[in-house]
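Comment thread on ticket #2218

A.B. wrote:
> Attaching the input chain for the structure job we discussed in standup.
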Amino acid sequence: MKLKNYFISGILVIVPATVSIWVLWKIFVFLESLIGQWIQRAVPQFYVRGLGLISLIALILLLGFFAQNIFGRRIIRYLEKAFVSIPVFNRLYQFVQSILQQIFRKEKQIFQGVALVKIAEGVSTIGFITSKEKILQEIEDEYWTVFVPTVPNPTTGVVLLIHKDRIKILPITVEAGMKIVLSFGIYSLSNATDKNKSDNPKKN
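C.D. wrote:
> Ran it. Output below, let me know if you need it in another format.
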């Protein structure tokens, strides 16, 4: 029995570590190849692994600095107009741009909370509130926008317009809600609630 427990404990340590290292390595290889392959072809004698990633970071910083001054803003504005005028490409460009603007927007979080969404009688799911504002002014009742992610890929999912009466806001953080979704429910709602209480103790 102890041998079985040791084996399970070892699995719980090595699998997350291995998967994390593999994902980071894949990201590194992808980013390195964006510029690294050009450097390797142009000056192979000076190329070392990692130079492509460093060059990519330097290029991003240079473009960011360039986009912050008046002259650079004008050129960026002209480039954006050119991108938007290209059929098909403009849809993809505007979509990616809007996603990045939401991610890096400081004054507002992407998700406003975690909710228990009533789908049918006796059936509910966990969703993430993206907006509590009315989508259409013509609708008198208040409908909230909720994103329900799918697993194992939480970047895909369904956007629902749900009446606020069918939504129960959960007393947990967005991070805890994501843990519940990504763990297929193994990380229970009660654990997330208890964790949230311990992180925010009441003041006497």
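A.B. wrote:
> Thanks. Noting for the ticket: The chain is about 55% helix and 15% strand.
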